[in-house]
Every structure is written in structure tokens, then in C-alpha cells.
Amino acid sequence: MGTSFLNIVILMFISVCAVALFKRIHLPPILAYLFAGVLAGPQLLSVFAHPEEMHLLAEVGIVFLLFSLGLEFSLPKLLAMRSLVFGVGLGQMVFTTAVFTCVPLFLGIPMSASIIIGGTLALSSTAIVIKQATEMGILNNRRTQLAVSILLFQDLAVVPFLIAIPLLAQTGEVSIALALGEALLKGVFVIAFLMSVGKWLLPWVFREVARTRTDELFVLTTILIALLAGGLTYYFGLSMALGAFLAGMMLGESQYKYQLEADIRPFRDILMGLFFVTVGMQLELTVLWNSLFEIVFGVFALMIVKVILVRGASLLVKTDATDGWSAGVKLCQIGEFSFVIAALATTHGVLTSEQSSLIVCMGVISMALTPWLMNNSVTIARRIVNKDISFDDNVSFGNAEPLTNHVIICGFGRVGQSVARMLKMEGIHFVAIDMDPVRVHESRNAGEPVIFGDASQKDILITANVEGAKLVLVTFDQVDKAKQVITQTRSITSTIDVMVRTKRDYQLESLYSAGANQVVPELQEGSLMLVSQVLHYAGVPMSRILKRVRAERKGRYDHMHGFYPGETTEITYGTEDKLEFIHAVVLSEHASCIGKAIKDIDFSRMRVAIKGLRRDGNEVKDPDQDAILQAHDVLVIAGKPRRVERAERKLLEGS
Questions:
Q1: CA neighbours closer than 13 Å in the CB half-sphere of residue 323
Q2: Strands (E), 164-293
Q3: pTM (2 d.p.)
Q4: Per the CB 3.0–4.6 Å rule, which of 66, 203, 288, 487 could disulfide with 241?
């Protein structure tokens, strides 16, 4: 137990240092995790002598990744892309598997092993491509969606291989058709079952969970659903990732989509990092050193052939040449499921240990090159096409352009809805964020642009395109939550204005300190509107009223703070340090402050403010700091009840 814990701590330390170092030299975190895996693996530091011990935990990372991907690809969207998935995807898988099966056959390797090698080399890395595309913000453009369509079919194609390998080991090549048929039947049953559950049961489950308003329960339910879906497909001998993808896809059209994605992301990113670490651990440096030339030559030959074959498959649906070549460059690596297939084939004796090691070495090197290739895929495609094509890299399949110059309303209660109606009347676009499932459901049915989610979460604000907004308005009266919204907004963009509504002015300064540009206390603002009406009816010119209102707001309602307490004033527990009283202190002949100048009395230390001074029945506005206090003066002070009481005792008794 102690040794295992120490090994985990060492692995985390290596990973943290590697990610920090690679970030410093502007390299993607994926390479850092691969590097950490090589260092911690059995070939060097031997932190974990058996990397397969962490394989299940790492595979959960892929489950969460595919669940997130499913949220992006709802069933209607997938049906709209069926020509890409079952056209280009099927073509790429068939062409590439056939080509890479012929090469080992030519070298004298048995048919069963050749087919497995061909299949492993045909697969690409869903984990790297999706993660990198998400970080680059290109997941929804047409080139990436073409690549994702191929990846989706590849994930489906993994299933027959996983089922066929044990049967190949038992009875040889004649069982291939039987294995594929069995895989197809199981796949159809499980997919139909999961789609039924996802359509009718999951929305009800999350609606009930959301009504509890418990963040922990929502997160736990999300994780449980992803794992249950993955476990179900795994039980039937299919890929865990396939089940998670289907569950995510069923929830992709629900109002909880963005909150689900935000909740799952921390777990997904950590476990995905662990997955890449385990990939790095599987790199056998002795095999790499002994067959370095063959491996390097094989990697480059593999990448070139896969780029060409993806482009060939894209011709089936008459895809733009630049898009086809760009998708090929993105998908020319070996995938993570290749390692799973190779390991299973080695266990059943279909592949030798050396053949499996060569596939792993080629896979790690090709994965390490992928981030650079993805960053430059469009440039490479342009050079291949040899045209200066003008295109929009952000054109996507059926996705509306993100709003810009809009208002983000955090909280869609009565205040938020009133603001939204006024914005509509002025033709100003807005996006609302709310955590009430019933309210969100009703609003969305009425066509309102409302996102279900916690506005204090960074991912939800990014979904609302906070970077392109002109204002973030916080309408709910929860000061701590409002501060979190301000902090997360400022972490994304420092230029946007943030306005906060609060019922009273207790937390005015703390909200401004947190980064709010404007805080609107409802009680003071209501009083200000009432005063404006009174002044108007009293005959004060409107220009002077507006000037006074602006001055009060600019001075943060300075003349509206505090009140004289009365017999009916209720001070409940917990509010005594929030209320601000105004109190008149009558200075008797024996008061200790008599004869002192106002400036010599440390009112700031007493944490009270002077509101006025009355002498001989006349009010002295803004009394001079050099004024000497006299007997029978009335000093008007303001502050919290206890501070006012202490200040009065200090003025009168000197203690």
C-alpha cells in the first residue's frame, strides 16, 4: 500500500513537471504525458514495472472522452452526417485495412496476424485528435468534422476486431465471418437498448436530479451514467467507449448538455492524461533501439499512405480537396485502440510479442508527431492541392454562428426575465444561464436562448461565448456565487463589463473588490427611483433630477446608506453586522471630546463616518476638520450598530 502510494505520488510529480516544462516551450500536454510515461516506465525509472496495472483506470479516461464527444454529436446531427460516417469512414477503414494487411502477408506473416496488423494500423487516435481539436477550438469546422466522422466509424470497427481475436486464436481464419456476424448482432442489440434508455429514461433521471439542486449529486449521476453505459457494452464484449458515446449522444439534445460536459471535464482530462502516461510506459526502448531504422521508416511510410487513403475515401462523397487532405493529415497516426487490439492479440497468441512491440513503438512516435501535424494540417493540405483557396475555417455542419456583442444574463428569474424582455424590445441579443430545470425547460420551449448550467463554472461561461459578449449581468442575490461568476469571467477576459444585482448594499464594496464594474443594490435603487418621482412632483427640473441620480450612483449611493432605528426596527441574528445605523450623539458639558478638533478624533479607527454637525439649532454641512467641538453640539454619525454604540461611548466617556 505504502509503495503503491509513493509510486503514484512520484508519477504525479513527474507528470506535473513534464506538463509545466512542455507548456513553457509551447508543446502540447499530450507530449508531456507521453514523455512522463517513458520516464516512469519499466525501461527507465520503473515507477510502475507493470503498466497494464493502470490500464483499466486509463481506459475510463477514454470512456469519459467518448461521452463528451457523444454530447457534441446528438442523434439528429449524427444522422445528418451519416454519409460521412458510413461513406468516408467505411471507405477509409476498408481501404486502409486491406493495404496494410497485404504488406505483412507479402512478408510471410499468417493471414490471421496480417488482418489484425492491418486493422491496428488502420485505426487513428480518437483521444489525441478530439482533445487537440477541442483545445484549438476547431472541433466544429468542416475539416475536423470529416475527421471525426471517420473516427466514429473506426470506434465502431474496433468492436468486430475485439470479438474476432479470441475466435481466431481458437479455430483459425474460418471463424472470421462468424465472429463478425456475432459482433453485428450484439452491436445492434446494445445500440438499440442504449438509444431507447437514452431517449426515454435519461432525460427524466437528470430532470429529477437537477430538481434537487445538489451539485455533487449531478456530478455523481453523470459519472455513473457514463460508466454504466460503458460497462453494459463491455459486458457484451463491445468497446466501453462505444457505450459511453451512445449515452452522451442521447443526452446531446437535452437542456443539460453543457452542464454535463462541464462536470465530466475535470475527470476526463485527468484520466486522459493517465492514459497517455500508460501509452508512454509501453514504449520498449530496446525494441526501439534495435529496430530504429525500420520503425522510423515504417512510421513515415504509414503516415503518407494513410493520408493518401483518407483522401481517396473522401472522394466517395466528393469532399473538397483541401478538406480531404487536411483530414488525412489529422488521422495519419496509430490509435489508442490499436494498443488494446495488439495487446489482446498477443495474449491469445495471434501476434508475437515483437510484432506487438513494433506496433506500440510506431504508435507512440506517430502520436508524438500528431499535435504538430494537426496545427499545420491546413497548411500542408494547401501545399498538396497547390491552390490558394479562400475558405472559412470555422464553417461547420449546421452549427449557428456564435453570438457576439450580446448580454449574458446569469439567473433567469423574474429580474433576469424582465431584463431579457427589455433587451428584446431594443433588438439586443442575449443568452441566459439558469440552474432551475423547470424554468429552463419552459423557457427553451418558448424559444428563449437559455442554457442549463452553473454560471460560476468556467466551461458554462465559455459555452455562452463570454469572450464575445459586451456585458455579464448577475441577477441572483447570492453574493458568494456572484463573486465566483466575476472571478471566472475575469479569468477568461479582463475587458468585459460585469454588472451585479443585489437586494441590499451590505456587500457593495466586496463585490466591487471582486471585480464588478457596477453593483446595483435593489433597495437603494428602488429608493432612488422613488426620490426621483418625488422630486419631479415637487417641481425640480428633470435635468437636475438626472444629475443627482447619476451623482448618487457614481458615489455608490453615499447619501442613501444607513437609517435612524426605531422601536419597531427588527435586528435579527446575523444582520447586526450588516445594517448601518445613523445616530445623533448629543455632547454634554462633561463629554470627553469637548475642546477637541474633529481631525484629532480618529473616526476611521472607530469605523464610523460623520454625517453632519448641528450647533445652536443650525445644521453645518460638511463640517471643517479644524472645527472645535463644543458643549451641546449634536454630532451625527453612521456605522454598524455596535460600532456606533462604541463610538458614542468613546466620544462621551473617552473609553
A1: 26
A2: none
A3: 0.59
A4: 66
